[in-house]
Amino acid sequence: FLSRILSQHPDLNISYDRANFFRFYLARAHEIESCYREVLEQARERFDVRWGMEIPVERIAEAIEADPPTTFPKVYDQFMRLTFCEGKQDARWGEKTLLQWTNIPLFLHMFPHGQAVHIMRDPRAVLASKREVTWEKPSRYLDAIFVCLHSMSWARDVGGSLSPEKYHVVRYEDVVCESEETVRELCSFLGVDYEPAMLDAARFKAGDKSEWKANTPFDDVGEEISQRPVNRWRETLEPWEIGLAESFLSDEMEAFGYEPSGIQLTSKDLRLVWESLSETPLL
């Protein structure tokens, strides 16, 4: 959702859940000079199968080869420019990507002029969403609690040591409840002027320029910035799920301004907690 807001700005080109370049290709960074064409071909196949999008492999390869030496940041940069920015070498690009906060310092090292936005959300809302959308075995959706624990503790302890000119935390709840103020602050961080059109959700487009559909398992979000998802967890989660999340995340939730529910667990709730944890080796 935040990536769609940013992509409405005329000076920004933000891809949505398409490239995931670090996720798929960072492991090959040490050998990129000898395998960049293989990486590009893999990306071409993935984009075609997954999104029905065409990657200009030859144009990317030509741009890389015209400016030796071949480095991972250079391959990443040209991939994004020629896939999402019409080849413009002065365009500002970015991508929304999952579970990559620990690589933010590496990204900033690779791109000295780069910036990172770390998106935070109420862990109880994350848990409610994960439970509805996951295809994993029963109880494994509870790993969302531990993902949030790591994301929030990393943002507080490691992210807090990064330059405020390079690293910025945004809470989802502020985006939807204090939209203009939050987006203005984000624009200031990025060094661009605020544009009112950024908050026109009816104009949002997906990464391939098709109509954007909200990435949510619930059906009560339309073409508007809605506050309904903020407290939906109160209606959808069981008391034991709320209590379990808060028991692990109380310090982090307080640090980021998320109020405790005040829920009191019964012996039955505690039994459900133990059954769910004990039947799931991952947990």
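the 2nd protein, sequnce then structure:
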Amino acid sequence: MSDVDVPQASSEDPVPATLPPGPAPGPEDLLGLRVAAALIDLALLAGLLAILSVAVGQASVGGGNFSVGLTGTWAVVFFALALGYYFVLEAWAGQTVGKRLLGLRVLSAGGARPSVRAVAGRTLLRIVDWLPALYLAGFITMLATGTRRQRIGDLAARTAVARAVPVRRRGLALVPLAVVLLAAAGLLVYRAASAGNTLTYRAHGVSFDYPAGWQDETRNATGTSGAVPALWTIVV
């Protein structure tokens, strides 16, 4: 049997180095996108508020300033519309207009589509997340939940917001946003133009328009209606 020389490794031979494994990538922080999506949704709802306010005669224009707002029954109607906006879109597609534009979607804790009950829960708890104003409670909760970025409604409903699967024609979500904002701006401009020759009296729980050339005057009441004394008098 012949001898076989086996080369011996010398100290000068290079030794393959093994690099330590790097840290595993963590979940993506979506805080900025969630805030931006919320602002888009709030802009759309603000447009709806302006449209409804002008439509029911609760918008006022004076001194170059616009004032929109709703009281009484109409305030309740708008509140229901706002909650319905979030519930219907998230239950149907998992996305509001803001989330669709920025590529986000509501998912259950396991990554599946959330149930209608879960969406209803996170929608109702927006009332708590909004407190004391502008989603402050929800924002603080998202900061406290790390990269999961869950607000109070997400924690209660066991939902989360994650990246959505890329979809075609995502920009079509701009259409309803643009329509609402343009309609609101147009109505406010029209209201301002039509109010140029009139003023609005608002006091004592009543309001009415009168020509801008008229002025308030102080006079004594000349009579009463039946046996009931007059509570107040305005003369223009």
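The first helix runs from residue 31 to 55. The radius of gyration is 31 Å.
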